[in-house]
Amino acid sequence: MAVERTIAEINEKIKQGKAVVVTAEEIIDIVKEKGVKRAAQDIDVVTTGTFGAMCSSGAFLNFGHSKPRIKMTKATLNGVPAYAGIAAVDAYIGATALPESDPENRIHPGKFLYGGGHVIEDLVAGKKVKLEASGYGTDCYPRRHLETWITLQDINEAILFNPRNAYQNYGVAVNTSNKTIYTYMGVLKPRMGNASYSTSGQLSPLLNDPYYRTIGIGTRVFLGGGIGYVAWHGTQHNPTVPRGENGVPTTGAGTLALIGNLKQMSPNWLRGVSFLGYGASLAVGIGVPIPILNEEILASTAVTDAEIYTTVVDYSSAYPERKPEVLGKVSYAELRSGVIKVQGKDVPTTPLSSYAKAREIAQILKDWISSGSFLLTEPVQLLPSVEAGIELKSLEIRNNS
Amino acid sequence: MVVNKFVLRFSSALVDQPVIYHLVKDYDLVINILKADINPHQEGYVVLELSGDSENYNRGLEYLKSTGVDISPLSGTIFWNKDRCLQCGACTSFCPTGALKMDQDRLVDFDGSRCIVCESCLDVCMARAVEVRF
């Protein structure tokens, strides 16, 4: 009889310490050995992981009220501006925000050594962070300026809210021009001197549940070393992309919007990063548990790097000009071998997402679940999938007239 | 046969002395200069690999010290901060000598003895986990 399980049944086993949990890497050999049917009978949860730069990340902070009170219209943390266009002492610090004093790319390529991602890392590490704020003064909020030092523990709320994380697959970046270029996919050497890629492949959350059959709003996840939740589908979530026979998208597709309490996260899994000539960002560690509700779901988690394909894109022209051309298709097994072939040329590969850390996250999440300290949640609503007919929109430049 | 890499720092008074010439001529040492620079204050540094039989090597080092050149092993000038490293491996595709490489488990490791201080890794590391301290 085919395996059918509910999340409630799996949670019952987790509470009893009887749940069988393996990582998305371990499941590959198990399925090779036992087959899908047997493996689905034996295994309750498969854990995934990813750790890489995710620019669409940031944190809502509530600083508490000063005496006298201020309605902040501008706020900076260690010089990095936070968005203060919400209530009096609420602000959002975004991962890519830069201090006004940053030279950016005026001396190209800029280094971007400190930005919003680094502020978030410093806060999570418990460091003192300088808050400067100004407002225009009102009868109820008379103060116009303040300077003080805060720590994560001093402030009321700190909520990591990342509008787009955990991209389901991503293109490979190369540079066909004659000069080095500096991108969010790292430094790209001229004449296809290297090819960067940035997913954890067979360990990556959404590549293990390609049609989002288990992941949805309310799914409890590993986020930044603590507990987080799927808040929504991420921005640019696009299930309507070409997929292989195994259902795995061959280009960027689904995304997750994630939320969690920053106060229980760790600087090991939230790290400020700097891309030469591009900007600052935040490396985020994410792990999603996949409940094995049936054989089909299990079969998807057994996907290997050799079965996940992605497209090669020229970041010297096709990408910046938003042209659809691709230079080829490669598998993650080829990418991880260190060299890929693009249009007949051997190109060394540059990994940007940490496979070793992704493996560590999947392992930690496995340990949490096995030890009974992490229960799965029933999604309130699954993420929109292929049948939702989502069409990714582009921005057209229109004249005022 | 002894082989080692050093950073030699020359004060402005020493920068016009043919020190390397003497290492080759008088001590029969094999010199491979990996990098060198003189700053506007007329101070200079040379990163080099020094090899020769142990007696010549030791006498050559004594000579170097006697000139007043500041000598430090290269391994003390490049720092790979393992805790800062995100283990992405991006640096390994820019390192020309394999000093930064990934092992079977896809963990990054740094072998200082292979480093030639080209500094290619410094800015391609998004975590800025490699530092040069000259």
Q: Indicate the structural class of chain A.
A: alpha+beta
Mean pLDDT of chain B: 92
Biggest β-sheet description of chain B: 4 strands, antiparallel
Strand order of the largest sheet of chain B: 2-3-1-4
| Shape annotation of chain A | globular
The number of distinct helices of chain B, counting runs of at least 4 residues, comes to 3
Helix content bin of chain B: 10-25%
Quote the distance from N terminus to C terminus of chain A: 66 Å
How many whole angstroms does the radius of gyration of chain B measure?
A: 17 Å
Compute the number of helices of chain A: 6
SSE pattern of chain B, N- to C-terminal: EHEEHEEEEHE
Shape descriptor of chain B: globular
Instruction: Catalogue the unreliable spans of chain A.
Output: none
Number-wise, the strands of chain A total 26
Q: Oligomer, anyone?
A: heterodimer
Question: Approximately what portion of the residues of chain A adopt beta-strand conformation?
Answer: 25-35%
How much beta of chain B, percentage-wise?
25-35%
Alpha-carbon Rg of chain A, integer: 22 Å
Question: What's the overall average pLDDT of chain A, rounded?
Answer: 97
Largest interface: A-B, 30 and 16 residues
In whole angstroms, how far apart are the ends of chain B? 28 Å
